[in-house]
Amino acid sequence: MPSTLNSDVVIVGTGVVGCLIAEQALDAGLSVLMLEAGPRVSRDTIVENYRNLPPTLRNHWNAPYPPKPWAPHLETRTPTEAASYLDLTGPNAKAYEQGYVRYAGGATWHWAGICWRMTPDDLRLKSLYGVGRDWAFSYDVLEPYYARAEHAMGVCGPGDPALQWPPRTARSRPYPMRPIPFGPGEQRLTDVAATLGMQNLPAPQARNSGVSFDGRPPCCGNNNCFPVCPIAAKYDAATALPRIEAKGGRIITNAVAYRVETNAQKKVEAVHYYDPNRTSHSVSGKIFVLACNGIETPKLLLLSADDKNPRGVANSSDQVGRNMMDQPKLIADIEMSEPLWTGVGPVQSSSIMNTSQGDFRREYAGAMFRMENMARSTLGGLAALEKGLYGKALDQEIRRLSACTARLTVEHEPLPLPFNRLTLSDKKDWLGLNRPRIYYDVGDYVRRSAENYTVPLLKKLATALGATDIKISPEFLHSDHIMGGTIMGNDPSDSVVDADCRAHDHDNLFLPGGAAMTTGGSGNSTITMAALALKAADAIVGQLNHA
Amino acid sequence: MLRVTQTRQAFRLSFLAVLAGPILLCSTASAEDASNIDPGAYIAVTSDCVACHTAPGGKPFAGGLAMKTPLGTMYSTNITPSKIYGIGEYSEADFSRAVRKGIRKDGSNLYPAMPYTAYSYMTDQDIHDLYLYFMKSVQPVERAPPKTALPFPMNIRSSMMFWNILFRNNTTYQPDPSHSAEWNRGAYLAQGPAHCGTCHTPRGFLMQEEASKAFGGGSLGSWYAPNITSDKISGIGNWSQDEIKTYLKSGHIDGLAQAAGGMGEAVEHSFQHLTDADLNALATYLASTQPVRDPADGNLSRFALGRPVSSADRVRGDQPIRSEDNPDISGAELFMGNCASCHNYKAQGSRDGYYPSLWHNSVTGASNPDNLIATILFGVDRHVAGAQAFMPGFGGKKTDAVQLNDQEITKLTKYVFDTYGRPQVSVSPAQVATIRQGGPKSPLLVLSRIGIAGGTIIIALGCFWLLRTFRK
Lengths: 547, 472
Fold this sequence. Notes:
The structure holds 2 protein chains of 2 kinds. By secondary structure, chain A is of the alpha/beta class. Chain A contains 12 helices and 16 strands. Chain A has a single domain, classed as 3-Layer(bba) Sandwich (FAD/NAD(P)-binding domain). Helix content of chain A is 25%, strand content 17%. Chain B has 2 domains: 1-172, no CATH class; 177-441, Cytochrome c-like domain (Cytochrome Bc1 Complex, Chain D, domain 2, Orthogonal Bundle), CATH 1.10.760.10. Chain B has 19 helices and 8 strands. Chain B has helices at residues 2-24, 39-47, 49-52, 92-101, 116-119, 124-137, 160-167, 181-191, 197-200, 241-250, 261-269, 276-286, 312-315, 331-338, 340-343, 370-378, 406-420, 429-436, 444-471, and strands at residues 66-69, 72-75, 218-220, 223-225, 252-253, 257-258, 380-384, 387-391. In chain B, a hairpin with a 2-residue loop joins strand 1 (66-69) and strand 2 (72-75). Chain B is globular and about 70 Å long. Chain B starts with a helix and ends with a helix. The interface between A and B is large, with 38 and 37 residues. Chain A: Pfam families: DAO, GMC_oxred_C, GMC_oxred_N. Chain A: GO terms for molecular function: flavin adenine dinucleotide binding; oxidoreductase activity, acting on CH-OH group of donors. Chain A: InterPro entries: FAD-dep_OxRdtase (IPR006076), FAD/NAD-bd_sf (IPR036188), GMC_OxRdtase_N (IPR000172), GMC_OxRtase_C (IPR007867), P2Ox-like (IPR051473).
């Protein structure tokens, strides 16, 4: 039976952005209804899914999250599978194989938890360097929301200003927890990088260090942050779902939003969704929030095209789906003669950030360098087996490869480029909805950076670590930071949302999160998405209380 | 008479209810190291006043801690020297009468949630020091905590008089000259200010502490305060005095026991701050108590059961990759998915002891499943010597990140008992549900109201009969 539901605030998506807004709205006394396309699965099921995977699939982060037919997401076990949902084209299609999950709790299920703030300069690329765009506001406006986001999620980080990022900027509040100490590999990298003028900083991370936070336990170093923290020491939005329900929020899972309906006054009236039986339902409300990530949000807006909104909802600017960004990534797999011992602590726990800033950004992209801190035993074991070894020789080779190999990565800041565009594919999914088609080209800004700057530096760093063999990925890869598709700006003619992530075209529609980001910076996007979510939440609460 | 009996029963049951509350809901307000501070402050720490008389995040001793009981919510009182809202107008005699007799300055009775039956043993000197501490060193807080308003008939405080006549001790601690001074000090602390028996001594028909089974173990709310007598099977008779002392100081001994629930709070707020001499005295006294044997224990001590067994062997290789939860999930899978990431795949815990082994563990070796169920539901959060020992709850609070249902906790608890502890223990979803809601629900309100209604009807009938007789 089709149903008609109603709520003050209707939120599509139960990831970090949707959950933060839901709690803010509930705390302000508003009613909240959330729609989630995928299923709601317990942590122990996902943990056991991961452990039941064959070793060859342990590095496929989506493998423990098999999608429901009605809520497909990218899976990468085979090329055919990889081509079965995201329809990717362009010279760097591979660099947009975004690994989000359509599960209640969203992609934070398997994020690393890293929370680098953007810098004041990152928000002013156009005026400082003549490239990209300027944000609608300065860093000072965003700073209090960064602090609130850090306390909402529980981010641990250094108290020493010399180790904080961005450098030489005031923080309104300290991190709620002290930093997680370096493992031996990270310490070594830090020392070696310093000789090249690269400062490896302890990463602020949404992970409990030494103490509990919000009823979640301290990290005990399972080194399992991808693809799931087995003990919820890392914040993920799934941990917020019981709290949202305890506050009176309603969560409907397996509900695939497919149409946003507007009225003659250009207000959103309803969101329509399919249940797994392909029955359509609708939800009406006062404020609507689309927080389905940087791919699904523009897709839903485009799917909602009708007579009133011929180019799609919120798209009078023709910018919906354009400016798709991620940090194009290169990786260097290295072998050393001496042990480095990664794997103690979280899978990522530090990064080199000072390589992301500077006047060179007039010419080419800044970048973040990092060493993955994953335990290498699975990779080492597979590689040793492939060599056909057995017995004692196999054991020795597994040990050697686990200790004496490492992966260095470099993630380049992207520019918002209108030709990097999400459109509706003519290929359909299980429900008959158009799949997202994305054209992606990392652009000359990034290519110049790789050629002149990052790859030479990556090789220097590897050599300084004592690398005897360096294999650099032949093409750009994805960082899973989906940004730009409903870009923010002050001018409604060339942007989709305003400074509060409110659609220029519809004043009761909010599109917060990565898609709203005007530029991407070099760091991981989640903390900025969370800050924008809290800013939007303030606007939503203000707007409803005012009305 | 019917009314009196019903009311007395009301109180014995409400005692159970209110007893559970404060022990479970004690705040995290901390006391300073008591050894260097004035004697009154030290008595306050020993008596653990702060635990119940401080609301979470509130000012010390300002009261307001909500104690949810099956009979309604009770709030601890403001015992700061505020003249309006606290005990600022109390004379030392008033103070003594409240602490040792359970009677407020205005003459009304305290509920025995305040352990005055134990405090009645306290010496005049300690009461004097405690009074001076509260009057001179505690900051007055000019705010009234919420008022306790239990539903009828529990709101009739005066009926506590009957209970007091029967069960309140009326003399201070009398030293036993056949024992050493150290033993006497331990006995005084255990029976008096530290009020061990309040939780660890089982309760009789009228909820009085059963002297013949002193320290033999008692239920309170969701948790079970185990047998701490010197019995070598059921009690702690095999513990060395050093171990007792270490446990009181830290709440943790590898391969024996870890404090949670009320005991975790007692270690946090009180025992960790006691002097070594007093901890030694307590250990000396506890080693000498009358042994109490629980027949359910057979000949197996709860501290020595179980062994390391891999749970991985039982679950790998026969399960699909799932996109929804398996309603038929086994206890072994629940263990692997929820517990093994910290307690390890053989339940051996961590080498540094932060995560205890689940074999050779007081909780999994017990004959009573309450503490294992309560630990899974409510977790552990114990702050000792500036460090936290923490385990998350798995659904005891609706906000817990991981929510296990009654069936799942039943399977998990049974699996842990079977694999790592005492396999004979049985567990049912109904038990889990009871512990989840804070212990057995009291049928008291209904019973007492029926009783009172019955009494009223009898009286009314009597009046009617008299009236008729008179008219004739």
